């Protein structure tokens, strides 16, 4: 009599497989959400870093230009003069020293600059529906004393700017003013205004960073004339007097030696 031995086969049931698949799906969904969060955070940090870099570069350019501020008024092309620094509540224009001429343009080391808010054209912006705000623009003139047809060269520094506010500290009245030269300035339009404020306050309102405020101390520039000539003339007169005294001493010494020689011969 033969007995058939039936081996019992072991395996997973359908319910166990479904439970495992559900757990794998939950872990996969959580991992994907975590990776997506990491990627979005990384992109946001890159955008913030780029905005901070642009803002730092813009502030560096403004600080570098204001450090080279000089009291040099310019002609405006209409038989008048623009002050060495002319500023309103949302625009400032001034003359700076030491402007690098890397392109070899026919100009000197002095350069006329201005900072203001501008807006990009729809053709340049690609017709974007969303309003990206204004631009902080640095404009420069190729010539110092302008002609009626002189146009500035605009250079955008910082995008996403909503507003620009400027104030100027007057050391005489010890007050912040919204324009420069002050209204009480006695200098007319036909004369050159070279007086400068002591400090400039800049307030930028951007889409991403909110309100940004900074105060730039301005160099003290004094306009003098004829100081060196007076000193040099005085030095020449003193040297002339010393020369006359020396010649007199030499004459007296020679006369004394001749008298001594005559006495010895006698």
TrEMBL record:
Gene Ontology annotations of biological process type: protein secretion by the type II secretion system
GO CC terms in record: plasma membrane; type II protein secretion system complex
Membrane association type: Single-pass membrane protein
Name of a matching Pfam family: T2SSJ
SUPFAM superfamilies assigned: Pili subunits
Location, primary (coarse class): membrane
PROSITE patterns, alphabetized: PROKAR_NTER_METHYL
Alphabetical keyword list: Cell inner membrane, Cell membrane, Membrane, Methylation, Transmembrane, Transmembrane helix
Residue ranges, annotated region (Disordered): 221-266
Positions with biased composition (Basic and acidic residues): 257-266
Subcellular location: Cell inner membrane
Segments crossing the lipid bilayer: 12-35
Family, similarity comment: Belongs to the GSP J family.
The protein's name: Type II secretion system protein J
Taxonomic source organism: Microbulbifer marinus
């Amino acid at each position: 009599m033969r007995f058939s031995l039936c081996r019992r086969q072991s395996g997973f049931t359908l319910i166990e497989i479904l439970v495992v698949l559900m757990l794998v799906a939950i872990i996969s969904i959580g991992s994907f959400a975590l990776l997506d969060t990491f990627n979005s955070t990384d992109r946001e940090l890159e955008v913030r870093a780029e905005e901070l870099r642009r803002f730092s570069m813009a502030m560096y350019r403004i600080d570098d230009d204001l450090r080279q501020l000089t009291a040099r008024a310019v002609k405006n092309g209409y038989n008048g003069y623009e002050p060495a620094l002319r500023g309103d509540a949302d625009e400032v224009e001034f003359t700076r020293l030491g402007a690098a001429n890397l392109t070899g343009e026919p100009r000197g080391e002095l350069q006329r600059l201005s900072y203001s808010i501008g807006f990009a054209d729809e053709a340049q912006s690609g017709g974007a529906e969303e309003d990206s705000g204004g631009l902080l623009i640095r404009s420069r003139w190729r010539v110092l004393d302008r002609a009626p047809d002189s146009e500035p060269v605009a250079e955008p520094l910082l995008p996403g700017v909503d507003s620009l506010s400027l104030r100027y500290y007057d050391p005489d009245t010890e007050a912040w003013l919204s324009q420069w030269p002050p209204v009480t300035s006695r200098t007319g339009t036909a004369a050159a205004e070279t007086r400068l404020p002591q400090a400039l306050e800049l307030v930028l309102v951007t889409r991403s960073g909110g309100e940004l405020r900074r105060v730039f101390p301005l160099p003290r520039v004094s306009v003098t004339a004829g100081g060196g000539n007076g000193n040099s003339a005085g030095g020449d007169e003193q040297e002339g007097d010393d020369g006359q005294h020396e010649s007199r001493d030499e004459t007296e010494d020679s006369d004394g030696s001749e008298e001594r020689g005559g006495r010895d011969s006698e």
